[in-house]
Amino acid sequence: MERLRLAGVASISLVAVEDGDEANTESDGVVGHILFSPVTIEGETSSVPALGLAPLAVVPERQRGGVGSALVESGLAQCRKGGVEVVVVLGHSGYYPRFGFRPAHLSNLTCEYDSPAEAFMAIELQPRVRAADARLVRYHRAFAEL
Ligand SMILES: CC(C)(COP(=O)(O)OP(=O)(O)OC[C@H]1O[C@@H](n2cnc3c(N)ncnc32)[C@H](O)[C@@H]1OP(=O)(O)O)[C@@H](O)C(=O)NCCC(=O)NCCS
Fold first, then answer.
1. Which structural domains are found in the chain, ordered by start?
2. 122, 18, 10, 123: which is closest to 67 by C-alpha?
3. Which of 37, 43, 79, 121 could potentially form a cystine with 84 if both were Cys, beta carbons 3.0 to 4.6 Å apart?
């Protein structure tokens, strides 16, 4: 993540902050984080505004409390507002479909990384007629160094 930040390619970065007691601001803290950074979709004649969701993390003590969902939903809302057309994610196939992600091959997208087919998912945020040819998604090179 630091490499992406240093490379200046972090596009949308959100944190979830827990409100503490008003009298005790020291109990405020970051309990979750999500990052969306640019990916390249090869084979398109014009460039498609597309982001990759990674990483998403919630501190163990606050997992299963809706923090992760709130981060994904706020992030996708910002993506929509910003004109992003496609968001891809390489992650748990039991988690992301609830937000509208579908297996990316249904959008003719394949991942540059070797991964189980069901783990690479995509959500198309703007209606647009798409080419039927398979297109390869490339993450920023900083990911290859993780
Ligand atoms: C995955 C993660 C971000 C989810 O955040 P969260 O705040 O716990 O999630 P929410 O409270 O919004 O949602 C809870 C739901 O997610 C499901 N869930 C949590 N982790 C999951 C996982 N690894 N695989 C599938 N489902 C998962 C829970 O079963 C629960 O489902 P339910 O609503 O049907 O009961 C969080 O558990 C986490 O940080 N895990 C460790 C890091 C990680 O795995 N990151 C994701 C990489 S793809």
1. 2-144 (3.40.630.30)
2. 18
3. 79
Closest CA to 70 of 38, 31, 101: 31
pLDDT digits (tens, 9 = 90+) for 60-97: 999 999 999 999 999 999 999 888 989 999 999 999 99
Residue 29 CA to ligand 1 centre (angstroms)? 20
Q: What 3-state DSSP class applies to 108?
A: coil
Which carries the bigger pLDDT value, residue 67 or residue 3?
Answer: 67
DSSP H/E element including 68 = helix 67-81
Which residues on adjacent β-strands are paired with residue 68? none
Share of the chain above pLDDT 90, in %: 61
Tell me which residues have their CB closer than 6 angstroms to ligand 1: 56-58, 63-69, 91-92, 94-95
6-30 per-position pLDDT tens digit: 666 568 999 999 986 555 555 469 9
User: Which residue's CA is the nearest one to ligand 1's atom 43?
Assistant: 57
Q: Residue 95 — φ and ψ, nearest 5°?
A: -105, -50
Q: Are 62 and 70 in contact (CB under 8 A)?
A: no
